[in-house]
Design goal:
42% strand, 1 helix, 5% helix, 7-stranded parallel sheet, 9-stranded mixed sheet, mainly beta, 2 domains
Length: 289
């Protein structure tokens, strides 16, 4: 069974060391979160366990043998680690899987219950949810996806189709051009793949990540990070003394500089105690590397 798995940058999951191209097998009874190898049917679900924050890697895998499935993950007796995926590939595969299951409608869909998902495929057909764990997915042009609950993700594939979330751990992902991703909750990441598609976050430790041309990654929360492939980043220098206050706000395009440091593509940047920090190639962090 084809599936998708996340690891840290050292290719480890819960302390187990993997290598690409190898097959692994466990003994004993297979049990979720206890014994076996875990993966997700949809790679976007990996972000719940391994967020796209520069510290993790993503892989296509093949699961076999005895297995058990929960809501969004499967544990199996055997697993083969296959090709590594970029974040953009995760989006493309994930959106394809999501919208292959969507029933086409020209109407807006709204839900209020927990785990009550809303999916639309038509142009201008919005999907809105209010419950926790209730995801909103749209495939059409200018078809927006909005969620208010915790861990309720918003995903859009169409051009000019925005994804907005308000809850903690509720990620917003867009694939189309001019399709913005906005999050307000803590640990709620915003990711965009299209040109001129901005990613904005306001919550604590909420990352903003863009891949397209002239796309702005704007990370406004305390300890939040911004990364761009070709476009711009906006980051805030927060300082704490009795309370959090903004010392300054910085912006630069990839290739430009912030406080004398050249901004590299596909690299997370953030401020910590007044110092500009950046992700290193190994997933560690350094202000001057």
């Amino acid at each position: 069974m084809k599936a998708y798995k996340g690891t840290n940058n050292d290719l480890q999951c819960r302390g187990f060391q993997f290598e690409t191209g190898k097959v692994y097998e466990v003994t004993g009874n297979i049990k979720l979160c206890k014994n076996g190898f875990h993966s997700c049917e949809n790679p976007i679900d990996i972000f719940d366990y391994y967020p796209p924050d520069g510290n993790n890697r993503f892989f296509e895998v093949e699961q076999s043998g005895d297995n058990k499935t929960n809501v969004d993950k499967t544990v199996s007796e055997k697993i083969e680690i296959k090709a590594e995926l970029s974040i953009q590939q995760v989006f493309e595969i994930g959106f394809g899987l999501l919208f292959s299951k969507v029933k086409k409608t020209k109407k807006t869909t709204n839900t209020t219950g927990h785990k009550a998902h809303a999916n639309t495929a038509g142009c201008y057909a919005h999907a809105n949810t209010a419950g926790n764990y209730a995801h909103a997915n749209t495939a059409g042009y200018k078809a927006h996806a909005n969620t208010a609950g915790e861990e309720a993700h918003a995903n859009t594939a169409g051009d000019k189709a925005h994804a907005n979330t308000a809850g903690d751990y509720a990620h917003a992902n867009t694939a189309g051009d001019y399709a913005h991703a906005n999050t307000a909750g803590n640990y709620a990441h915003a990711n965009t793949a299209g040109d001129y598609a901005h990613a904005n976050t306001a919550g604590y430790k909420a990352h903003a990540n863009t891949a397209g041309e002239e796309a702005v990654a704007c990370a406004l929360g305390v300890n939040s990070k911004a990364k761009a492939s070709q476009g711009w980043i906006v980051i805030v220098d927060w300082r704490y003394q009795d309370k959090w206050t903004i010392n300054n706000i910085y912006h630069a395009k990839v290739g430009g500089k912030i406080k004398g440091i050249k901004i590299k593509p596909d690299t997370f940047y953030w401020f910590e105690d007044g110092e500009l920090k950046q992700e290193t190639k190994k997933g560690n962090y350094n202000e001057n590397d």
